[in-house]
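note to self — DONT lose this again. spent like an hour looking for the file last time. sequence + predicted structure for the chain T wanted, 123 res
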Amino acid sequence: MSSNKLLSGFLAALLLFLVGCMTVQPTAFPISAKRFTAKPNGTPILLFKETQPGRPFEAVARLNMHIEKTFFIPSAFNEALPQLEELARQQGADALMDVVERKSRLNETFIYNVTATAVVFTD
């Protein structure tokens, strides 16, 4: 076996091992008495990270994205956003607001948690 094949095999095994050391837990908690029809995949979800929408809205769900990675690999908002948007679509939401990020670390495990409120525009 050539050294290139051996190195490629080792790197592939290492990558699979590192990817296997990640936990992602997306959760949605409905907070509205109304239920809204889920939006189709790819429907744009507006993001109001530090502001509120300038039009009437109703909060429909509280969303939570919890990511844990080992081996000193941190997570960032751009990694959590697509999954938050998918959760919002499932709740029938038009936008996300009240975004709060929390980061912590336990030994070699990086813990990243993002919460947001999913809203539906009422106008």
